[in-house]
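Worked problem 6 (solution included).
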Amino acid sequence: MTTPPDEILLPPDADPRLGPVLSGLVACLCATLTDGGRPACACCLVWGSGPPAQDFCSCDCDDGHGQAWVRVVRQDPVTQDARRRRCQTWRTQTTVELGVARCVAVTGPDGQSGPTCAQREADAWGMVLDTRLLREAAACCEALQDVMAWPGAVSPMGPQGGCAGVTLQLTVEV
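Solution. The predicted structure is:
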């Protein structure tokens, strides 16, 4: 089921502090991948307990290949003054993941011939470049200018089902 078009929330409506950070990170990620010569077929905010299904891990879209995403991994409250107010406003440390997954060389149609070393190396260098672009997207994003942000883990994904990728986590305090 999808949300009807007249009920689509704007980022500040969903969360006035976190919403603009998330939408800004999506814009930074998509632009940085494109500027770096590695655009993705899909680049969006996603929700889930893990990286998104590799629905767009395609080698043949018009504008690039693979998919990129931003997602909330977890939110932890920031300890504050314990004075009780009528309505609590808790600051949170939100762990956010930026990720990209691309198609990679796989076993041939005969089921016997695997990728060559040259194909595997080309895929690996592409992932190294994607890693650099993820770091650049987070480090240079204006959406993080007015919030505290800390870099986190960078982790490879896959390969699985012809897709491999990389994720970068960062923590923002809003």
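Discussion: The chain has a mean pLDDT of 88.
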